Amino acid sequence: MNIYSGNVNGIRSALKKGFEEWFASTAPDILCLQEVRAEEDQVPDTLRNPEGYFTYWNACKRKKGYSGVAVYSRIEPDMVNYGFDIDEFDEEGRVLQLVFPDWVLNSIYFPNGGSGDDRLDYKLRFYDAFLENSLRWLANGKHVLTVGDYNTCHKEIDIARPKENENISGFLPIERAWMDKYVENGFVDTFRNLHPDTREAYTWWSNRFGARARNVGWRLDYAFVDEALLPNVLNSEIHASVQGSDHCPISIELEPPFAPIPIKPASVDAEI
To answer: 122: which residues sit within 8 A by CB, 6+ positions away?
Structure first.
């Protein structure tokens, strides 16, 4: 099962840069998109209802043309959630959660914390709400795969200029500390697990100063799984050659069936 994910930086813009052709030629089992910046009725019908896919959209309710996520899946989920049931987060259209019999797929556009202290606080609270939600699914016996734009580089290896950016949101110590906490709670960065020493592997580049041509980038997009799902991960890749956005797509290949997870008691004490 091949799952692709990418921040398209506006789906209507991506459509002018070959997105549909790339989608058709790649033919993933599931495609997760972030920062679509559009309502479902603002894209062509061929993209609203592509043959062979169940399609789900979650647009930002607070401001048109902002945020938003979409998922295309060849496999019909049992249920779809459009957030964490927390209004301040759900109104920004950042989450699509597809619930399958033994696993959950999150496609998430995590907040950017670079617009002031209030947005950094919002980002960190969103992170904690997400982690609590993920741990509850694990406690209920479901594996959790989360793909998307996490908007944080975890380690120095994940960013081209670590020293110059240590005071910039996306590489702040407090943001990276949350990523540490995420890992400590049993979630694994699949790309780094399979490619522990690979350098200069980035998923986002500034549009300024020829950053992409010089590969001065950040690894902001990830595919994380719970530890118990790791044996089913065959590949986790970055597709840096794919143009059309300031991000590039990532992918993860999973091999079912997934081993069952014991259901835990109702209370979940996440270290958040």
So the answer is: 88, 111, 113
pLDDT digits (tens, 9 = 90+) for 72-97: 999 999 999 999 999 999 999 999 99
Give the DSSP letter of residue 56: E
In order, the DSSP letters of 117-176 are: HHHHHHHHHHHHHHHHHHHHHHHTT-EEEEEEE-----SGGGBS-TGGGTTSTTS-HHHH
Return the pLDDT at 68: 97
Query: What is the predicted pLDDT for the residue at 246?
Result: 98
Confidence at 272, pLDDT banded by 50, 70, 90:
very low
From CA 168, how far away is CA 176, in angstroms rounded? 12
DSSP reduced 3-state for 182: helix
How would you class 237 by CB atoms within 10 Å of its CB: exposed for 0-12, middle for 13-18, buried for 19 or more? middle
Residue 266 pLDDT grade (very low, low, confident, very high; cuts 50, 70, 90): low
**β-strand partners of 247:** 204
Mode of pairing for the β-strands spanning 233-238 and 250-254: antiparallel
Q: What angle do CA 221, 227, 228 make, to 5 degrees?
A: 130
Give me the active site residues, please. Answer: 149
Identify the structural domains of the chain with CATH numbers, from first to last.
2-254 (3.60.10.10)
Can you tell me the distance from the alpha carbon of 232 to that of 253, in angstroms, rounded to the nearest whole number? 8
User: Nearest-CA neighbor of 6 among 18, 76, 196?
Assistant: 18
Q: Which residues make Cβ contacts (< 8 Å) with residue 248, sequence separation at least 6?
A: 6, 203, 204, 221, 238, 239, 240, 241, 242
pLDDT per residue as tens digits for the range 133-164 = 999 999 999 999 999 999 999 999 999 999 99
